[in-house]
Amino acid sequence: MFSFYADPAWSHDASHWHEDGLLVVTDGKVSAMGDYAQLSKTLPEGATVTDYRGKILMPGFIDTHLHFPQTDMIASPAPGLLPWLETYTFPTERQFSNPVRAREVADFFLDELLRCGTTTAMVYCTVHKESVDAFFEASEARQLRMVAGKVLMDRNCPEFLRDTAEGGVRDSEDLIKKWHKRGRALYAITPRFAPTSTEAQLQLTGELAAKYPDTFLQTHVAENPDECTWVKELFPKARSYLDVYDHYGMMRPRAMFGHCIWLSDDDRLRMTETQSAAAICPTSNMFLGSGMFDFDRADDARMPMSLATDVGAGTSFSMLQTMNEAYKVGRLKACYLPAMRMFYLATLGAARSMQLEGTIGSFVAGAEADFILLDPQATPLLKRRTERCNSLEETLFALALLGDDRTVAATYSNGRLVHQRKY
Ligand SMILES: [Zn+2]
Q: Which of 22, 142, 278, 342 has the most crowded CB, counting CB atoms within 10 A?
């Protein structure tokens, strides 16, 4: 059993590891963790004990950027972001004005996340209010800690996906009142990206973010060079792409910026100053050929960051597969990402990026009991490799490079079993 209490990039002593561990859960919350031999003596009479010897128990993964309406178009071929949006994304998202269709996809999407061990995600819906209702109804039925929001988009997109500056913000406010902090739901104000919002919409979005400071905010920034050039044309006075969002008051704690590839050092420092966070999406970035995130420069600026799949441009729902690609992106930028760091970024690091430390991402007493069991013997190759590992770092590295949904033996949310591998 392991979990983090610090960032392994800056602390040699960052994680708890118990060879034979016990996690005590009461009413959906962690009440204690430690060595089985010690802690089992304190269990109350009649406590249910589930034996997962041979598995690795850890906090559930947190995926800080993905699009549930794009589930059915994952792995669609296109030469780059803008043609991919035109050809696949916009026609697909059109279907989400239909609540029945939206609910059916939300159900599949959430079950797929749970199969992959992801217990919290920051999710883009579509421009339609119905898509947000369908998503939160599906996540409430599973008692999941999820963050989501209605996409705001009032220009440079097809008519059938366009809201208006006032209408989009009014719908978002209605949804905040309906869903934010209802059960485990959290709302994210969600302008798609600067090119698809007018200045009037960006202005009103920033005002909404200030009016509801405990909501989240999510958008895309500096994903690929063509998009950056386009933003420069649309906002000639801005210092940079990120500066467009800064100008409208969107950089703040609980703001999550997808990609952050083509940032300047000034931009990175601004992210740190405002406690805005990056959602790094390596499978998507490699798939679309967008570019490679610079982990070392982000660390030089101490920029808050996390890992994300960006499904449907991302090619896997699995955070293990996301780590696999993150590692290779790191190598291509002459950076070295230890497995411990990648697991941190997918758990406690993400929780910190979202200002949710103490609630999710760790086993501190009082944290919500969202946890997973990883199986180092999930496949013949993994079994063979992990039997030869001599440290937790080596084992986690093998799991990150060779693992996927098959590696997740069970997923718990709120202390309840929500997925169990069937084979
Ligand atoms: Zn995205």
A: 278
Asked if pLDDT for residue 405 goes beyond 80, the answer is yes
The proportion of the chain whose per-residue pLDDT surpasses 90, expressed as a percent, equals: 97
Distance 397 CA to ligand 1 centre (A): 26
Q: Which residues pair with 305 in a beta bridge?
A: 278
pTM of the model: 0.98
Using DSSP's 3-state secondary structure scheme, residue 414 falls into: coil
CA of 358 from ligand 1 middle (Å) equals 27
What does the pLDDT read at residue 335? 97
Average pLDDT over residues 118-145: 98
pLDDT at 351: 98
Report the distance separating Cα 16 and Cα 324, nearest Å.
23
279: CA distance to ligand 1 center in Å? 9
Gap from CA of 41 to ligand 1 centroid (Å): 48
Give the C-alpha separation, 270 to 59, whole Å.
Answer: 30
pLDDT for residue 174 is more than 90: yes
pLDDT at 82 over 90: no
Which DSSP letter does residue 182 get?
Answer: S
How many whole angstroms from 214 Cα to the centroid of ligand 1? 22
Q: Which residues pair with 373 in a beta bridge?
A: 57, 410
Q: What are phi and psi of 317, to 5 degrees?
A: -80, -10
Q: Is 391 exposed, middle or buried (0-12, 13-18, 19+ CB in 10 A)?
A: exposed
Q: Which residues contact 357 (CB under 8 A, 6 or more apart)?
A: 348, 351
CA of 29 to the centre of ligand 1 (A): 31
